[in-house]
Amino acid sequence: MSRHTQGSLAIVGAIAGAVFLVAFVAMYVLSDYSISAAVFLALLPAAAAAVVLYRGFADGAQAARPAAPVAAPAPKPAPVAAEAEAAPAPVAAAAEGKPAGLDGPREGGADDLKKIKGVGPKLEKLLNSMGYWHFDQIAAWGESDVAWVDENLEGFKGRVSRDNWVSQASTLASGGETEFSKRA
């Protein structure tokens, strides 16, 4: 059983136990049911809560699994001279292993990086400050790039690998959707 599943089961069990306790007290103390009737009736909402919560965690685990490999996006044609001047220049790697970033988003504007599971508003701002504005930038990261970003995301170390950003970004860069981006 994976660590994720064990943690999910512990949370589900704790919440279902709390639901049982509240329901039991309500049935036994407030409604004057016998102990056995109160236990039986309290088990019903606790079981229902456990099923609903476990399904929610299971759906989350399904979404966290990497999708089937997606073909790499087709290379974009070389920009016309006017477009080449308008595109932000890549930022030189400040440290060894740092993936190249941009000074700012391209002319069409930044991608909504929050469509990647694990990226919220704060993390999106942090990525932008590091020079990462677009899905195709993240999709192009290799193992050493992922390792560098994982290590240098202040307060979010390991998030790139844990949530499999490169695979998600590849799907989103090619115009596809992930389970998470459909809900976001």
From TrEMBL:
Transmembrane region(s): 7-29, 35-57
Record's keyword terms, sorted: Membrane, Ribonucleoprotein, Ribosomal protein, Transmembrane, Transmembrane helix
Region feature (Disordered): 94-113
UniProt protein name: 30S ribosomal protein S2
Superkingdom of origin organism: Bacteria
Organism lineage string: Bacteria, Pseudomonadati, Pseudomonadota, Alphaproteobacteria, Rhodobacterales
Segments of skewed composition (Basic and acidic residues): 104-113
Organism: Boseongicola aestuarii
GO CC entries: ribosome
